[in-house]
Amino acid sequence: xxxxxxVLEGVLADLAxxxxxxxxxxxxxxxxxxxxxxxxxxxxxxxxxxxxxxxWTDIAAATAARAVRGSRRRPRGTRS
Length: 80
What we know:
There is one protein chain. By secondary structure, the protein is mainly alpha-helical. The chain contains two helices and no strands.
């Protein structure tokens, strides 16, 4: 593992905090047209699709950043 990069570590910490805020915000959404199935301004996308997209991009960004610092640990919520 390489020496910690404070900028990279800050980005990873910010990403983790934003991911947690999103998780907290959607945790109790009902699985109906008032929650997960509510359409978003993006045509053809509902809340579930939008959150899945955000989750994937967060995981991809964290994985890439961790690869830069030499970590092989998988981000929370990913499969091995």
